[in-house]
Amino acid sequence: MKHTVDPSGQGEPFPIHASGLCKQVSPRKAEIITLLNNVEFTASWRAMTGIVGPSGSGKSTLLYCLAGLEPVSSGQVGVLGQCISAMGPAVSARFRRAHLGFVFQSYNLVPSMSVEDNLKLPFILRKTRWPEDQAFKLLDRLGIRGLLKTNVTLLSGGEQQRVALARALISEPDIIFADEPTGALDQETGDVVVNELAAFADRPGHAVIMVTHSPEVASRCNTLVHLCDGRIATVDKVPVPKASI
Ligand SMILES: Nc1ncnc2c1ncn2[C@@H]1O[C@H](COP(=O)(O)OP(=O)(O)OP(=O)(O)O)[C@@H](O)[C@H]1O
């Protein structure tokens, strides 16, 4: 897997390409469980790629491996042209902070802080300007502006998901990884969330990878990767009607 010098990776043919990806765990001595078996995975620019399949088929494990949040046992994962599976933890964390956004329920929200402080934290750490107008418009669309001063521990699961989405979008990553982004939402709010993700994915140099159980959300994806027992069963591609980047 080549290491590119283009930090945005936009000269790369794919935002994510994984080959021969295997993930095994050993919960007990002399017991090895294979969670992912020789997975080949490619995501496209300006597209939402959905990972679907039965419960326990390895969807979240694959998402975490692709995002560099879980080590792989063998194989390679390239993200934005960089081999994330070969990075050490500190380099991988720095790469994620610079390029990737995550919409996982309660993932990485700091529990002792308000919604507002959680949203501002990446900007404080990066010493960049907090884009207040843009943030307030997004929070209005997501229906969570009234929660700005609320401690995140007091939020419902669906509210936490929307805060995680807002934080990911405001931070302007190249790729967003989402695990069941509408899982805790009613239909109407779920539509708002998927519309935001689709608009993000539609921009040049961007992509969304998501796990979903929802047929409605899956129908909005440009590519659907079906997992079964840790293997790719089928890949359905719906052509993106836009020029690629
Ligand atoms: N660290 C681990 N040790 C042992 N088994 C694990 C570990 N992590 C995951 N598993 C098992 O691997 C399988 C795949 O888990 P994963 O969460 O990726 O599935 P999933 O397809 O996302 O499921 P769901 O749709 O129910 O969320 C499950 O059977 C799970 O119990």
TrEMBL record:
One of its GO terms (molecular function) is ATP binding. SUPFAM superfamilies: P-loop containing nucleoside triphosphate hydrolases (SSF52540). Pfam families: ABC_tran. Residues 16-245 form the ABC transporter domain. CDD domains: ABC_MJ0796_LolCDE_FtsE. It comes from the Bacteria. Keywords: ATP-binding, Nucleotide-binding, Transport. Gene3D superfamilies: P-loop containing nucleotide triphosphate hydrolases (3.40.50.300). Belongs to the ABC transporter superfamily. This is ABC transporter, ATP binding protein. It comes from Bifidobacterium mellis.
